């Protein structure tokens, strides 16, 4: 869906209707567009990769319904594309698991995953970067995957075997709170077009230890202007505290969009 929005400058609702008509999205699309399906897959993959159970209710999930054509245009100007990502990392503080849209640099391998294709990008200690890529939607790919699972289950029952991957959850590692994660951010705001507004916003970010990497400001209409900010890597809870204060500024009419950035 994000591919169609990017390539054809279509809005979200139009792309969703077409995806449903073609069978790529369910009649109730919430599992796909709200990120729930990706979160379920991420819990399974994380449990296998990190040898610990990862509860679904501890995965941060944010969908793509708030992504607009304007965000896609700005992402392109920043030499990025927007993708829905499921991210899992093992850190000293615990397992980091989150699903959300993100800006990716166009040179990143995942940036070229388009249309009905999905990919898993892995960084291993010895193997380095590896990506597995293939169709992730449509009648035949789905039917093929289901048939393969049924045949594998039947074979395991016949041979009294546990399967290719048995239970790997033999460790008890904590899931890292979302507020303790760090990433970069893209923020789009509609503000009053007058002196000092940007300085006030930057001051609040600075007071919350949020450093700005780039700023784009454009006059929109009347007495309002649009500002796009990209931050350096920042702690999630610090960034969210800054947004709370910025929303209280009388010169800030709306925080239109907040998207994380990944892949550097």
Q: Brief description of this entry?
A:
With 264 residues, the chain is an alpha+beta fold.
Molecular structure report:
- The chain is 34% helix and 31% strand.
- With 264 residues, it is of the alpha+beta class.
- It has 2 domains: 2-139, 2-Layer Sandwich (Dihydrodipicolinate Reductase, domain 2); 178-261, Alpha-Beta Plaits (2-Layer Sandwich), CATH 3.30.70.
- A hairpin with a 2-residue loop joins strand 2 (80-91) and strand 3 (94-105).
- The longest helix is centred in the middle third of the chain and has 21 residues, at 139-159.
Overall tally of structural domains: 2
CATH architecture of the largest domain: 2-Layer Sandwich
Please summarize the sheet with the most strands: 8 strands, mixed
Radius of gyration: 21 Å
Helix content estimate? 25-40%
Look at the structure and name the CATH superfamily of the largest domain: Dihydrodipicolinate Reductase, domain 2
CATH C-level label of the largest domain: Alpha Beta
Q: How does the helix and strand content classify structurally?
A: alpha+beta
Mean pLDDT value: 91
Which characteristics define this entry?
264 residues; 2 domains; Dihydrodipicolinate Reductase, domain 2; two-stranded antiparallel sheet; alpha+beta; 8 helices
């Amino acid at each position: 869906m994000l591919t169609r929005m990017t390539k054809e400058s279509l809005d979200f609702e139009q792309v969703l209707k077409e995806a449903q008509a073609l069978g790529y999205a369910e009649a109730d699309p919430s599992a796909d567009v709200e990120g729930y399906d990706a979160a379920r897959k991420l819990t399974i993959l994380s449990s296998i990769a990190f040898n610990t159970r990862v509860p679904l209710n501890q995965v941060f999930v944010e969908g793509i319904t708030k992504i607009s054509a304007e965000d896609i245009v700005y992402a392109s100007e920043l030499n990025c594309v927007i993708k829905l990502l499921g991210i899992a990392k093992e850190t000293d503080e615990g397992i980091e698991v989150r699903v959300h849209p993100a800006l990716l640099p166009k040179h990143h391998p995942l940036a070229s995953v388009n249309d009905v294709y999905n990919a898993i990008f892995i960084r291993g200690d010895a193997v380095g970067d590896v990506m597995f890529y293939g169709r992730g939607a449509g009648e035949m790919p789905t039917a093929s995957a289901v048939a393969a699972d049924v045949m594998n289950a039947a074979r395991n029952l016949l041979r009294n075997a546990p399967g290719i991957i048995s239970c790997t959850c033999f460790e008890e590692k904590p899931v890292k709170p979302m507020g303790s994660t760090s990433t970069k951010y893209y923020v789009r705001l509609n503000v009053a077009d007058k002196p000092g507004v940007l300085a006030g916003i930057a001051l609040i970010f600075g007071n919350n230890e949020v450093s700005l990497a780039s700023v784009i400001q454009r006059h929109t209409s009347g007495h309002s202007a649009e500002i796009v900010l990209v931050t350096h890597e920042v702690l999630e809870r610090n960034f969210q505290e800054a947004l709370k204060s910025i929303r209280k500024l009388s010169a800030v009419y709306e925080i239109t969009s907040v998207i994380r950035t990944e892949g550097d």
